[in-house]
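ok new one. same drill as before - structure tokens go in, u give me an amino acid for every spot. 473 of them this time. try not to just spam alanines like last time pls lmao
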């Protein structure tokens, strides 16, 4: 056998591994090179030094992975990946009460009282045609739509800022529930297209739920790696790629890295204008993550939150808008937006019997170097008095530590780059082939490319298919 590879993939996040798996099942000889000692990027899982516990150190909620066309093609279910839904997908807790997203659209709408009809009007079509919508939305923005009517109906709302969609609703519950989901964009909610995150995530929820991966998110990475290796591929860990010239001979190079890192690896091979664009690619606000081991359930005042996989913790709609605006301006709010996930009731393998895990992160300014844990605890305590009494231990991972463990998480940005302004369209270029870097035979396939953040592997899959139609034909 020669030392020439059909393809080298740099980075083993879900996109890098999906690219490698897609190429492998097409009979290509692939090598994956990963900087960290473990594969998986932002879908790793760990006991964080306490045997008997299991935490997802990055992504935990798999609303998009569960419906990923790439994972369906690669048959991840056949490779042992199981998604488990919580009883209630999401609750948004308020000082008095709250609101919940159920798998069932009618149950969700009815819970929103006077806004039931408006919720159905906003979400029902996208939810009932979700597979068609996913075909058109989980890829480059510039493309010939496969389902133009469904896409057009989605776009009518999706193009609007969340603050405009918020005005279509009369209750605090409906506004807060939708705006909390829109805030997964890490973008101030008066920006165009922010409502697209709410509509997509809610429609996905009514379609396949917001599940956890049984046994931890790393099971997704393990399944993809097994596909690569069983087809003769190789995976090398603990090796940071600095330059293309350091790599073995290859026909195609796929970079599961941020655009600036891609520019560095490709050096002078990258056309100058493209190199400038890649270096100027903007990153978004950061995340400050805290994983808790708990002696029992979180004592939420809003009872449905106890049965929810995800809980949005911020308070009302106005508080959320203000907090998101502050973090994007580089200011740390006193009361940040906190996402809490409770995986162990659905997946008891993650905690010793009778105990629970709690995954949380707060939205913080890019590169924030303070300690956000006291603010996270205070936010949870506000809606779950007595939370601190059930905490046995905790592990905090701020923006710098996130980046130190994974170079793609620049300044703690977990979304692969800011979604504000034109960059929601230019990731990193506005093109029907956004994966091509402009340097011959090279592709960028991380979450900085369409369809963006999430553990769905679609960027890797689409970049691999592009390479299979060109150098690897
Ligand atoms: C804390 C956190 C929570 C999240 N929560 C969710 C969630 O609940 N649901 C969801 O869908 N998504 C979530 N996400 C986002 C999701 O995990 C990412 O969008 C997804 O992992 C991106 O995949 P990727 O393959 O593009 O990059 P990554 O997963 O970031 O992987 C990139 C890999 O490339 C490696 N690498 C980078 N540069 C080099 C180099 N030069 N040489 C070698 N290797 C290199 C890195 O070490 C890393 O392993 C979360 C992310 C984080 C960090």
């Amino acid at each position: 056998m020669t030392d020439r590879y059909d393809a080298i993939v740099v980075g083993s996040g879900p996109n890098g591994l999906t690219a490698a798996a897609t190429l492998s099942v097409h009979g290509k000889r692939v090598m994956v090179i990963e900087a960290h000692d473990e594969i998986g990027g932002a879908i790793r899982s760990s006991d964080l030094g306490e045997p008997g516990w299991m935490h997802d150190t990055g992504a935990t909620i798999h609303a998009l992975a569960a419906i990923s066309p790439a994972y369906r093609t690669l048959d991840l279910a056949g490779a042992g990946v199981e998604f488990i839904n919580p009883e209630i997908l999401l609750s948004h807790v308020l000082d008095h009460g709250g609101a919940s997203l159920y798998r069932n659209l009618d149950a969700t709408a009815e819970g929103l009282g006077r806004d039931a009809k408006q919720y159905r009007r906003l979400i029902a079509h996208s939810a009932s045609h979700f597979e068609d919508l996913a075909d058109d939305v989980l890829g480059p923005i510039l493309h010939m739509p496969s389902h133009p009517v469904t896409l057009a109906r989605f776009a009518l709302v999706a193009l609007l800022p969340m603050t405009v969609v918020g005005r279509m609703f009369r209750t605090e519950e409906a506004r807060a529930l939708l705006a909390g989901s829109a805030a997964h964009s890490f973008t101030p909610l008066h920006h165009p297209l922010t409502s697209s995150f709410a509509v997509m995530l809610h429609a996905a929820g009514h379609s396949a739920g917001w599940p956890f991966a049984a046994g931890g998110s790393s099971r997704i990475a393990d399944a993809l790696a097994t596909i690569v290796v069983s087809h003769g591929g190789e995976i090398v860990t603990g090796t940071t790629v600095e330059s293309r010239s350091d790599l073995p001979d290859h026909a195609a190079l796929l970079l599961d890295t941020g655009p600036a890192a891609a520019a560095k690896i490709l050096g002078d091979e990258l056309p100058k204008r493209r190199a400038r664009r890649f270096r100027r690619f903007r990153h978004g606000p950061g995340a400050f993550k805290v994983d808790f081991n708990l002696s029992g359930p979180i004592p939420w005042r809003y009872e449905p939150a106890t049965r929810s996989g995800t809980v949005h913790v911020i308070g009302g709609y106005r508080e959320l808008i203000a907090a998101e605006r502050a973090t994007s301006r580089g200011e740390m709010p006193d009361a940040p937006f906190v996402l809490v996930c409770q995986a162990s009731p659905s997946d008891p393998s993650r905690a010793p019997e009778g105990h629970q895990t709690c995954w949380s992160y707060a939205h913080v300014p890019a590169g924030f170097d303070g300690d956000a844990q006291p603010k996270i605890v205070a936010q949870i305590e506000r809606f779950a008095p007595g939370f601190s009494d059930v905490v046995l231990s905790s592990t905090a991972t701020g923006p710098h530590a996130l980046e130190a463990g994974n170079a793609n998480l620049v300044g703690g940005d977990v979304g692969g780059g800011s979604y504000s302004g034109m960059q929601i369209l230019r990731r990193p270029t506005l093109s029907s082939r956004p994966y091509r870097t402009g340097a011959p035979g090279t592709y960028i396939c991380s979450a900085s490319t369409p369809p963006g953040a999430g553990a769905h592997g679609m960027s890797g899959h689409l970049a691999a298919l592009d390479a299979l139609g060109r150098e690897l034909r």
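The two ends are 20 Å apart (CA to CA). and btw The pocket of flavin-adenine dinucleotide is lined by residues 10-16, 33-36, 41-43, 58-61, 64, 240-241, 256-257, 261, 287, 289, 361, 402, 406-409, 414, 416, 446-447, 453-455 (CB under 6 Å).
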